[in-house]
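Supplementary notes for students who missed Thursday's class. We covered one full example, reproduced here. Read the sequence, then the structure, then the short commentary at the end.
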Amino acid sequence: MKLPLMLAMILADRADDASYELAENLCRDVGALFQMKNDFMDCFDLESESGKSGTDIQEGKCTWLAVKSLERGNPQQRKTFTTCYGSWNPEDVETIKSLYKDLDLKSLYEEQQIIRYKMFMQKVQELPSNATPTPQLFLKLLQMAQGGQ
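Structure (token representation):
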């Protein structure tokens, strides 16, 4: 989302170093919130609720959950992860999901979402009303990234 925003700033002749830095930082925050949610939903959401079938584990994607499991896991858990991750075997996929549950990644996800959201909102609230881009634009980007209209 950063590139379209930067291009719009250039086309509107509202681009300066401070605005670029502001946009980059807030777009990074929105992107992190979006990616965490996307990775979590891919693993734990029901296809009937989300409309998508999660295959991040089978495809061996470098997801937020995968990184956190490697960071938090003990040597045996990391070995299990490297053995089973990226496999299309349903038992291996369930082993990874069980590992995520054992590491309590759902609680970590919920905590991190709240912390990151609060940090984002604080940054947006500290923006002057005449900032380029406007605070309202960043709130709209977050809403869209979280699945709202």
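Commentary. The CA atoms of residues 48 and 54 lie 11 Å apart. The chain has a mean pLDDT of 86. If anything here is unclear, bring it to office hours.
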